[in-house]
Amino acid sequence: MMKKIFLAAMAIALLASCSKSDVEEGNNLPVSGEAVLSLNVATPKVSTKNEGPHNEDYSRLDAIKGLDIFVFKEDGSLDTYLKVPSNKTAIKDSLANIKISVTPGIRSIYAVANSKVDNWQGVTTYEKFSKMSANLSNENFDNFTMIGNVTQTIESSKNITINLERLVARVVVKSVTTAFDKTPFDGYSLDFAKLYLVNVVGNKSFIGEEVLPKQILNYKEYKESDCQSLGMTACLYESISNRIDDSNPYIHSHYFYCYANTLQNETNSERFTRLVLEASINGKKYYYPININREGFGWNSSIDHKGIKNNTSYEFNIVISRLGVDSPDKALDLKSVTLSAVVDDWGRASSFDLNF
Question: How many whole angstroms separate alpha carbon 33 and alpha carbon 100?
Fold first, then answer.
């Protein structure tokens, strides 16, 4: 579900300074037209609190450090391409009144922010554009890839707003606590705890579709080399130094970022993206795999999707009451944990409690 949020704030002087020489039309791609569009490009709205492994400010989440605009005709051919260079987009909230010439007709307009693509040469059709992809290794907290699109019938000059969405989703663990009191595990603790994501999609097309060959990170288990290949610290993995027990709850937020995975059913090779709590209990290693936003793990009929959707946040408070399983990709005994889960589109939240 595209998020419809328009942020009107704008530094007019910045865009007024974009002369034709400031804008790269790139690689002899066709740029012509009889109508002039005034585009307003709005970033996703975020709260004012801090987040991230090092409490990065929320304001960095909507930074635009480069913007590419594509206009496609009905037959899929490219009508116009416009590049707003990074030195003209280093602001937050929105870009307004971007002028672009197009020919009349039904036009599909795509805006890609922070693409990390240096050269779009040869991308002269929608089909070729749809195969261009982002890679999780290039994502970072202050320049997440964002994309938005609209389709309009253009007959004369007009104003159009494009709302951007982040290509990544966010998974948040807000707390890990235990409830071992008066159970056979009374007095036990969680030691050497770790939090990470497994079966993470590592590449995604700019229009949100699968890319072949599909890259999967942390396939079925934590892989140090996969996590170290990413540009963002703690993107998929963080350790917890504290011992966690009934008297010492762990109340600290950890933030992870991944691409969408809305797989309908699992096979031996195609797996759900999972959040995993790993810990040593009484000297033995246990795993608590959580199927993110799936039945039994937070999903309910009020949520319009199962699994992980882009630009969406999934927040968990985890309470451990018994031993886990022996694999990070094995179905969890639903009586092992209590989850308090929130599914949030990074601006509007609904919450519910789950007891297993």
Answer: 9
Is domain 168-355 annotated with CATH 3.30.1490.20?
A: no
Q: For the domain bounded by 12-166, which CATH number is listed?
A: 2.60.40.2580
In this predicted model, what pLDDT tens digit does every residue of 318-348 receive, in sequence order?
999 999 999 999 877 777 777 777 777 774 3
Evaluate if pTM is beyond 0.85.
no
Q: Is the dihedral of CA 320, 326, 329, 331 positive or negative?
A: negative
Q: Backbone phi, then psi, for 137, in 5-degree steps?
A: -65, -20
d(CA 237, CA 241): 13
Domain boundaries, the chain: 12-166, 168-355
For 265-283, the pLDDT digits (tens) are 999 899 999 999 999 999 9
Residue 57 φ/ψ region, left for φ over 0, alpha for ψ in the -120 to 50 degree band, beta for the rest: beta
pLDDT at 297: 79
> Hey, do 12-166 and 168-355 end up sharing a CATH topology, with the first three levels equal?
yes
CA neighbor of 178 nearest in space, from 240, 250, 238, 239: 250
